[in-house]
Amino acid sequence: MPEDKGIGSKILGLFVEKEEGEGQPKDPQELSRFGLPKSPAEEIAELARASSGAVPAVPAPPAPPSPAAPPLKLTPAGPAAPGGAPVDFGAIFRDAGMDPAELERVTKAEDLLGKLPASIGQEEKRAIVEVSLKAFGFETEKIVTAAQNQKRALDAYVKVNETATAKANQEAEAKIKALNDQIAQLRADAEKRGAHLQQLSAQAQGRKAQLQKVLDFFSVPAAPSAPGKP
Question: Which end of the chain is more exposed for a tag (fewer CB within 10 A), N or C?
């Protein structure tokens, strides 16, 4: 497996550098299986086996309990920006109260998965990663827990936004109905005013005709002009 040479050290470089108390390998034999350089502890173990034939195994410390899921305090997103801006997942996780160390573990794990050689199988990749990390006391369960917490936060965030969207849409529909009712009332009022104006104009024309009869009857005819005068 020539492609595996040095994979373990790269994996450890991703995860172990910033973890407190995880700077020394707890299982050097496992590291050597995947091409990692021998540590001082492994050299001592080999010398002891050469002289006495066996080295008592040191039991691994019990894994700490998985951290409780963080309390979720999420606020719904604002209106979508033009062009569909990408979601700021980091901000969502921070609002959910997640530990920054958890976020970093998942980010490193994602980076690691992208760097593993494509020439080896899935099970072999998993074996390399687990052995490399556990040899330095880093429990892979931390990564699993952190990823599960992020999924939980995303589910809760989507649910919060679903509720907020439904409420906003309900309020918008109520406003639209009220505005449509107002528009219908304004149109009805305009039609009434138009009909009233037509009725008023018709009645005014009838009254003007009656008045014209009076004027025609009582008006003095114009005197005829004298001959030769304009």
Answer: C
